[in-house]
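Trying the structure run again after the queue cleared.
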Amino acid sequence: MPKGSPELTRARKEEIINACAELYETMNFKDVTLKEVGKKTSFSRTLIYYYFHTKEEIFLALLQREYEAWIQDLNSIRQSHQEMSVEQFADELAHSLERRDRLLKLMSMNHYDMESNSRMENLVAFKTVYGNSMRMVAGCLEKFFPYMTAEDRQGFIYAFFPFLFGVYPYTVVTDKQKEAMEQAHANYVFLSIYEIIKSIAVRLLQGFKD
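Done. Tokens:
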């Protein structure tokens, strides 16, 4: 690849994002630094700064990539079915997010920090993809539930997307957290990502069955 070519830029950005994703599997957000990311790549921390000014920008790019992958899953659902019942769509929607646990984990983080510490061009790129994910969900609703009005679809999105921000910490808990809940006699019912998302999707779509 020629030095400074779009292909080289994309390849280097992807390598940085992959390094961040790998670190995030075993480290907390606060412990992931540009220095740690640099150790996982083939170039220096100075060169990383050329592409990403902060670790928040890298995490935002990773979150953007996760949304892009989910959009592909949603598009596959939309293209591969002519009709779907509420139960069938909720099942497919839940499975699409069950496969995206990293997306849900990133969503549970403080978006304010990621967004406020990212340059405008990066933030706009992320918001564009985020908006596309909402439009894709709306497109699925429009196809499979024609009785829904535009207002109905918007209502689903306004309820469903904020709900997703709490899915990961509600469903992925440590043994210590489980023990604390038991000692507190909180009567906490542990649900999987699939179970909790399917349940809310069915509830939100009640009344739109054929």
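The longest helix spans residues 55-80. Worth checking whether this holds up in the mutant runs.
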